[in-house]
């Protein structure tokens, strides 16, 4: 894995070589990473793995024709062959009137925003093993836990560098640490499983392994002996770890490519009141130590915090350069890519801001309903917004979470669900997508 400065030089040199070989424009992306993972089960070491790799991808344009070629061989001879092959492929590719580099005037310039994504540290296999064992031990110590699917700990570092023929050549490094545990409670056909995990850019921010394991055990035991749910319409409250999926459905519907293809249920929603007044959904690529923080996007554009939903109103589409051209607009700094293809669109650290009600008050106001902790399947139609997913969780009775329930389906239409959504005040930043506890009123529930 190359240091950042060396990686910047490598991609800049590759772009220069592509131009000399006949490309009208080009960009190159380097990704190098190294990670160590340790898995344990029933207090015994199961696996120690180390992965190291680096790859470089070159995208070239000849007129309105383009091609992308990638390689994990970074030798001079291999890169020379890569350049020759990419230019030859581009000359034979079909024309695409929307393809091209990002506008040069929008590229990130000057000092990059410091997102503090790399702590410069390492963790030895012995240290990771100790963390994994601590997580599993704590999970298995919870009364009612009968078996374990294992626990793991990991540590890694990565370097990313991007260069374009319009003069951009920048990079950054990240570190990552994680601990997880999955355990089983009960016996025979009554067994239940659940998990807990935490990941962080800085090791100092990683939650204590024993706390992670204990939470996995407690979640599992709470699910034992689930009952059934009667069918009908009722309020559904989503635990934050599953409520974040609502944001994913929103983002998928407002990407420039979905709008340009007219395959989104939100085609006519730009500038409209999609959520209740007061609701804000923000994307923050500059959050210090954020899991998806980045100083520039996959095309070299400067990133900036933005409100995707402001006071309940959908502010616009998320676009890379190609989809922006199709829509007659400017890219929004949300491009993402790998080494093997053209850019797409993704958000960074996106979150739905806390509401005014505490979780207890939200539940009390709910009265009777369902508290969902797990969603099953992918029953979402991105064209119509129709939503239907299997779920499990707990009953809410008289404003209190009570007994576990399973094997039911919740259904609705995402546009209506967004409008009926109420957030609690318990937002915590832990993931790339964070939400507080969410309530959606009047969903259709199919149970026993």
UniProtKB/TrEMBL annotation:
<feature type="domain" description="Metalloprotease TldD/E N-terminal">
    <location>
        <begin position="26"/>
        <end position="90"/>
    </location>
</feature>
<dbReference type="Pfam" id="PF01523">
    <property type="entry name" value="PmbA_TldD_1st"/>
</dbReference>
<feature type="region of interest" description="Disordered">
    <location>
        <begin position="325"/>
        <end position="344"/>
    </location>
</feature>
<dbReference type="InterPro" id="IPR045569">
    <property type="entry name" value="Metalloprtase-TldD/E_C"/>
</dbReference>
<dbReference type="InterPro" id="IPR047657">
    <property type="entry name" value="PmbA"/>
</dbReference>
<dbReference type="Pfam" id="PF19289">
    <property type="entry name" value="PmbA_TldD_3rd"/>
</dbReference>
<protein>
    <submittedName>
        <fullName>TldD/PmbA family protein</fullName>
    </submittedName>
</protein>
<feature type="domain" description="Metalloprotease TldD/E C-terminal">
    <location>
        <begin position="231"/>
        <end position="447"/>
    </location>
</feature>
<feature type="domain" description="Metalloprotease TldD/E central">
    <location>
        <begin position="121"/>
        <end position="224"/>
    </location>
</feature>
<dbReference type="InterPro" id="IPR002510">
    <property type="entry name" value="Metalloprtase-TldD/E_N"/>
</dbReference>
<dbReference type="Pfam" id="PF19290">
    <property type="entry name" value="PmbA_TldD_2nd"/>
</dbReference>
<dbReference type="InterPro" id="IPR045570">
    <property type="entry name" value="Metalloprtase-TldD/E_cen_dom"/>
</dbReference>
<feature type="region of interest" description="Disordered">
    <location>
        <begin position="279"/>
        <end position="301"/>
    </location>
</feature>
